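Running co-folding for coenzyme A.
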Amino acid sequence: MNTPDTAGFRLARYTKADQQEILGTGEDPFGVAETGLAWLPKEDHFGIRHDGRLIAHAGLRRLPVTVDGSDLTEVIGVGGVAVAPDVRGHGLARRVIATALAHATTLGPPHALLFCRPPLVPLYERLGWQAIPPETPVRVEQPGDRVITMPLRTMVTPLHEGARWPEGPLRLRSLPM
Ligand SMILES: CC(C)(COP(=O)(O)OP(=O)(O)OC[C@H]1O[C@@H](n2cnc3c(N)ncnc32)[C@H](O)[C@@H]1OP(=O)(O)O)[C@@H](O)C(=O)NCCC(=O)NCCS
């Protein structure tokens, strides 16, 4: 396939079948099943289509947070980032995330946040994201009133000029997205 040059756009909805169109029907397409985490669905969805086929997705969800000693109360969570296996390495994740973040800048919170497996940290750094140091505690809620330490890496990026991520332990006041 030639590198698709289609722009990203907002999807009216994003179903399990849409995700399977991109990633196939494998058991663990994001490679995070072993964490056993429960996740929230995303609220806004962005995609790239090529020849009528959905080939990339990124989702957004507003999340309540606290960071010790700061007044930060909300972030825009980014999740469900997916590119079809046969079109990876052509900048489609970059493009669909940029489309999602352009929308995120209109939502109010000063930062976007995502969770990823450690091998993906360099990719997101390349896209301008900053990894929260592994020694900084990141706690998230799970079913049954549990609060656990997030086993994945946490990354943030500013949505507004001059926004600076505060230092200190991060607590997500919800399930992760
Ligand atoms: C992770 C995933 C979305 C990447 O999609 P992709 O379309 O291949 O990514 P891109 O081509 O847009 O690459 C983004 C940038 O990261 C760079 N990059 C890729 N791998 C890298 C690595 N290991 N180290 C550093 N940079 C890397 C690319 O060169 C590109 O930068 P550039 O545009 O300046 O060249 C895709 O592999 C996927 O769907 N994986 C399965 C689902 C998944 O794990 N999603 C992530 C959930 S957090």
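Result summary
Strands lie at 9-11, 44-50, 53-67, 74-83, 111-116, 130-131, 138-142, 146-149, 153-158, 170-172.
Residues 9-172 form a domain with the Aminopeptidase fold (CATH 3.40.630.30).
Job closed.
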